């Protein structure tokens, strides 16, 4: 289990935060998600053998946001 912090650009309201939380929480091996509008970030605890950093970023991008 590791913790990854992604920079997420493009979130402008609480609905965006919930969207990002939802797509990250849905990934296999994700056990904790904290998304901050103010910090433009998503902090995720995950089993990297099931979902790695690239999968996290891709899920956020597919939801319509920039992630790095
Ligand atoms: Mo808020 Mo985000 O109405 O795409 S959900 S701006």
Kindly describe this structure.
Pfam families: HMA. The protein is α+β, with helices and mostly antiparallel strands and 68 residues long. It has one domain: Alpha-Beta Plaits, CATH 3.30.70.100. The chain is built from 2 helices and 4 strands, in the order E-H-E-E-H-E. Strands 2-3-1-4 form a 4-stranded antiparallel β-sheet. A hairpin with a 4-residue loop joins strand 2 and strand 3. It is globular, with a radius of gyration of 10 Å. The mean pLDDT is 98. The site of dioxo(di-mu-sulfide)dimolybdenum has 4 residues, from helix 1.
The CATH topology label is: Alpha-Beta Plaits
Instruction: Using the alpha-carbon principal axes, give the shape.
Output: globular
Question: Quick one: biggest sheet?
Answer: 4 strands, antiparallel
State the share of residues found in helices, binned by percent. 25-40%
Structural class: alpha+beta
Separation of termini? 20 Å
Count of helical stretches: 2
The proportion of strand residues reads 25-35%
Radius of gyration from the alpha-carbon trace, in angstroms: 10 Å
Task: Determine the mean pLDDT.
Answer: 98
Bound ions, cofactors and other small molecules, one mention each: dioxo(di-mu-sulfide)dimolybdenum
Low-confidence stretches: none
SSE sequence, one letter per element: EHEEHE
Tally of discrete structural domains = 1
**CATH architecture classification:** 2-Layer Sandwich
Beta strand count: 4
In what order do the strands lie side by side in the largest sheet?
2-3-1-4
What is the name of the CATH class?
Alpha Beta
Domain HMA: 2-68
Organism: Viridibacterium curvum
Protein name: Heavy-metal-associated domain-containing protein
Keywords: Metal-binding
